[in-house]
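User: Fold both of these, please.

Assistant: Here is the first one.
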Amino acid sequence: MPLYEQIRAKLRMDIASGLYAQGEYLPPADQLSKKYGANKNTVLRSLRMLRSEGIIDFGRGRGAVVLASAPMGIDEISVQLQQVVNLADVSGIPRAAIVSAIERMPRMQARRGRAQRSPQYR
């Protein structure tokens, strides 16, 4: 997957998880380029893709603001899950332990644009 697609997917996930809520600004492109180890133009390409999807809006001299949360599809979640499984494999952690850890995780609820634990798990 090209780097700009990886950055787009990561930003979509961050928005969907509530890390960046509706109305909030993303970090500037130069900061994102450092964070992802990418050229600023690569980051801008990712941002333009998110803008074309209606998830963010930005313009020259203005920051990128989140317009709406982007629901994640199973394909995008599977990519992230594959990374976790790969990390577990190289760390010698059995896959059954990963499945068990997932099953023990409390469900998250979106609240005021941020993902938070359900009250029953606090």
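And the second sequence with its predicted structure:
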Amino acid sequence: MTSSTEPSPAGPAVAGSGARAATEATPAARLSATILTTLVASASLEEQPTPWARLTAPGSSDPVGSVRWFRDGGGTDRGIHSVVAISLVVPAFGLDSHMVFAFGAPDAPLPHFTLDSVQAGGGYAFHLDLVPRVDLAVNPAYADGVYAPLTGSFARASEIPGLAPAAISPRQRSLMSPWMLVHRADEAALGAITPVAEHYLEHWLALTRSFPADAAREAEEGDAPARDRKLREALFSREIDPVWSQVDRLLGTATTDRLRRLLVTGTPDEAVAV
């Protein structure tokens, strides 16, 4: 969840329902909406209902955000499990936080795509990555086939004026890839990162259509599904990511825990029960 100008490496958000119209023109929402629109259309995803089309704070009826959930609507079998888009939008607090998280299927080698874009505290921040399904240090075919094509965009991003490294912990960095981009930004820099985010997404979509066979073999040998479940439990844990305590204050502990479970599993509790 991302609710400060220091984005956590995979926290929430994308404007949906009532929040969407109010935030569509903001720079953070615009970046997120651009990526989500392309992702949903390119992967033939269909939006499914969630209990959080309108997030509210405890004891209040005022909306503070929304959750959108998408599944494969075309039977394309691209290794995509689901896409979760979460927004927290509270103008009174100066908060405009948006996350897109696209999950590879549990039994697929496909990395997860994640983008956070945030406006808070008078500034902007973003986080962009493909979350690895294997240990890249000992799986060179996966590192070369899945991540090396991002190197040019990764390098170009470092040259954008107006970016500064975000302060996240080494423990948080250890959960992501070396190609992760996580920065504070001014408004111009946030806009300039859009082509980089688009390239990361285009590459991820290309992997859903044709995944390198040697990289897939490495993922299979490394028991990627078990590793991935443990990684997501860490990625969205309260102990590692302090942002969840901020979300507690906004949404309450019960709702926050349900959103954390959604991000660990890729599926709302209600859908699992059905």
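The first strand starts at residue 45 and ends at 48.
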